[in-house]
Amino acid sequence: MSLSRRHLFTLSGGIAATAGLAACGSNTGRTDTAAPAASSAAAALPSVSVWYHKYGEDGVEQALKKWAAEYTKAKVSVNWVAADYEKTAAAALLTSSGPDVFEWGTGPSLDMIQAKQVVDVTDIVGAAKADFTPTVMKRLTFQDKIWAVPQTVDMHLLYYRKSLLTKAGLQPPKTIDELIAAANALKTKDMGGFFAGNDGGLGVLGSFIIWAAGLEQISADGKSAGFNTGALYDAVAKFKTLFDAPGMLKSASTDWYDATPFINGETAMQWAGLWDMTKVQAAHQDDFGVIPFPAIGSGGRQVVPFGAYSACVSAKAKDVDAAKAYVKAIWVDDDAKQIEFSNAFGTHIPAKPKLFAQASKVASGAGADAAKFVTDFGHIDDILWTPASGTAYSTALSNVVKSGKDAQTEFTAAADKVAAELKRVTG
Amino acid sequence: MTTAQAAPTASGRLRRTPTRPGNALARSRNRWFWAFVTPFLAGLMVFVYIPIAWSLYLSFFDARNTVTPTKFVGLGNYAYLLSDQLFLNSMGTFIVFALVIVPLTFACSLGLALLLHKIPVMQAFFRSAFFLPTACSYVVASMVWRMSFFNGARFGMFNTGLRGLGLDPVNWLEGGSNYWYWVVLVSLRLWLQVGFYMVLFIAGLNAIDPQVYEAAAIDGARGFNVFRSITLPLLRATSIAVAMLLLINAFQAFDEFYNTLNTVRGYPPYARPPLVYVYLISFGEGSQDLGIGSAGTMILTMVILVFSLVQSRILSIGADK
């Protein structure tokens, strides 16, 4: 079950995991036509087929189908892909029977843009570009064109128990040293200090070390790796200290993307997703807070990785203009739908910051903190960061942290690989 | 009528008359041949040969997110993979795996076959019992191995046993410098495939003429000598086939690795056989790098071919004597 996705984030992992687990084997690939009974007028309308992955939260499917049915300028059908969305959609996009509009983790991949599978949507975003979260729009823009419209924003967060930190006389950690100290201080016989997955956090936190150390995955000129410096070697050494710390919990009842260990009291702090917040709130009420991943080293900064499922328009759409018009109507023009999406199912952040105040779940408390983090500390995989680059980096990281190999040798090899990848995909 | 038919030459009559009923038979045989073979041939063409040929074609192109590429790169994709240290490392992983799993499965299935071959009671039951795991899917078995038997938490089945013996629980799939994951992967594959090869060996053993054994007994051959001088040489054909199938299967290892070790955030950097690595870089996270993927499968096919030829050559030395 491969659940993360290229270039999107990362966080898709949690959402998709929930979806995937709930949906094993139930994908019929059937298209549910949400349009109302055909009338003679409907027959003349263009048709638009829209594909979504299965969201874990109840009600999303009904809402999306209702919106499709209510749209009057085209006959919109919704295909709710219950399992293995990306493989299904990617394969369908090669054919003439693929989707007209489809969502993709934080916009289409570089390969999709270069293979001309998606069309430029700069015109339908228009002046509204300024309304969307800048960090999200930056990722959706490639060579000065906008390639998708953000639907909703999701993210990872570090959850902590306020009462436990207060009792230990500690502040919420802003640096990795503080996190290590807090994890060790909060650890008890029955409770771990910090949990970030059953692999000790290597999988989920690994790629954030680059950003937390103040570096970037790819250099500014887009020709080489941006991470292969002494600052990274030091940051990884620091991360190894966290990895080996007694307060680091390395096995729990679920993996990081599910906050159950934090809710059950298996751990005092956990790396998890915004999608867990509703559940955490129900269990701990106000006795919890959220913070970004802490800064590492003198040039470091706090980091939150985000993802935003975004609507893309297929270049093979039967009626490209009708497809674009639908995307514009739902995700650019209609703020009420953004608010509904953020309020009605789980916790999501509207893609437009001006709507935060109306989105009840992110208007105050931990939700409001989270929403602010996306703008202030948000990072996402570079569009040029290919699976081969990610694989090379994570291999180097694991070799250094787990097997104690030399950081400079390992990361230089990974950086060479990244440079070769950049040459291959942009050359 | 007769005069009209007599008109052709003698040689013509000779050719036609006797073959007329044969022709009809041949035609009808032909028809049935094609009736039965066509569907399979068509299936083979559409689902096997055309994709292989297409894959070969794609391997010479920069084919990202397209099956009709236009950017020809020659041997670029091959060079890319062969200069990729991680791809070469994955070959190393395969060799370690094959060196363990091929002889181990071979020995275990042959051993089981020898034990069951002459068993006087409940032979059918034992054969079925050992054969049954073959019917289990790799994915299902991987899940059972990962979540139940070799769960790294202290309540995992083997860890419960270890704790009962006063030992520390083992984090089986941790990786890094912890190599216990090989126990998980090897035991899983062994369990799944040993029964199948056992059946092949039993068939081979049954084909050996009992008179050979009787003759050997009269000449005074006993125990291991009989096995070494009669059973093994006469099983040569079966052994070569089994060894080759085992090697090819080991090369194609994917399911149990992927389903045992993959996590939400991706596949860990250890225990990555070539197919898993090629899959990760060409289809990872929703991408479709068909050029690199195809080049990877072509390289693997060539390696399997070479290994198989070398192996069968080595194993069949002296076979004709």
TrEMBL record, chain A:
Belongs to the bacterial solute-binding protein 1 family. This is Extracellular solute-binding protein. GO terms for molecular function: maltose binding. Residues 1-22 form the signal peptide. Keywords: Signal, Transport. It comes from the Bacteria. GO terms for cellular component: ATP-binding cassette (ABC) transporter complex, substrate-binding subunit-containing. GO terms for biological process: maltodextrin transmembrane transport; maltose transport. It comes from Propioniciclava tarda. The keyword Cell cycle does not apply.
TrEMBL record, chain B:
InterPro entries: ABC_transporter_permease, MetI-like, MetI-like_sf. Its main location: membrane. It is a multi-pass membrane protein. CDD domains: TM_PBP2. Gene3D superfamilies: MetI-like (1.10.3720.10). It comes from the Bacteria. The chain crosses the membrane at residues 32-57, 94-116, 128-148, 179-203, 234-254, 290-310. This is Sugar ABC transporter permease.
